[in-house]
Design brief:
2-acyl-glycerophospho-ethanolamine acyltransferase, Plipid/glycerol_acylTrfase, 214 residues, seven-stranded mixed beta sheet, 1-acylglycerol-3-phosphate O-acyltransferase activity, alpha/beta
């Protein structure tokens, strides 16, 4: 990872974009993890989602932040690969393989980042869905919780970025972004209980939006 370029990109481009061009309102920002290891799970409607979360965490925590992203998309072209790995600092996960060729667990790269005290950004819907609509969550977060039972998982619901830069669009439309930070999920839950608590938490966070916004 190119740390000087990464800090310059977020300080000079991402922060002005999120704070001036789009605008960001965050509820309960103090509930975001102050340090790693930690996992933040959020809904996913736009490529801007990861930049919005990294901006809210601030430059002080930027060195700890590692977004999880699809290797089969972000590693396919040289420039996209360089930007994703050297500037954004993604943890690439191949969604097409149940196990790596070397026999390691498919989530091992995330586990390694957590062992190095990273704040991992995870989008359990798997990919960008329809703008401003929640899709069903995949169970990868439950597998991570089982591998790292002491790592807190904080849910965040985001609204607005799916309209600012929806999937398939290249032109940015200025649109205000709301972020609602929930309480960390209960530690030590089984897969079924954790997925139920995550879904319930995200639904309650979504319900904080004014009715007319939907």
């Amino acid at each position: 990872m190119n740390r000087p370029l990464r800090y310059a990109f977020f300080a000079l481009i991402v922060r002005p974009l999120m704070m001036i061009v789009l605008g960001t309102n965050v509820r309960r920002v103090d509930q975001l993890p102050q340090h790693g290891p930690a996992i933040i799970v959020a809904n996913h409607n736009s490529h801007l989602d990861v930049f919005a979360l990294m901006n809210v965490l601030g430059l002080g925590r930027l060195g700890m932040v590692r977004p999880v992203a699809a290797a089969d998309y972000f590693l396919t072209r040289p420039l996209r690969r360089w930007f994703s790995t050297r500037i954004v600092g993604i943890i690439p996960i191949d969604r097409t393989k149940a196990r790596r060729e070397d026999g390691k667990h498919p989530l091992e790269a995330i586990s390694e980042a957590l062992r190095q005290d990273a704040i991992v950004l995870l989008f359990p819907e798997g990919s960008r869905g329809e703008p401003e609509k929640l899709a069903a969550f995949q169970s990868g977060v439950a597998h991570l919780a089982k591998r790292h039972p002491d790592v807190p998982i904080t849910p965040v619901f985001m609204h607005g970025l799916g309209k600012a830069l929806p999937k398939g669009e290249a032109l940015l439309v200025p649109f205000f972004c709301d972020m609602f930070v929930g309480q960390p999920l209960t530690l030590g839950l089984g897969k079924k209980e954790l997925m139920a608590e995550l879904t319930d938490s995200m639904t309650h966070l979504k319900d904080e939006l004014p009715v007319e916004s939907w």
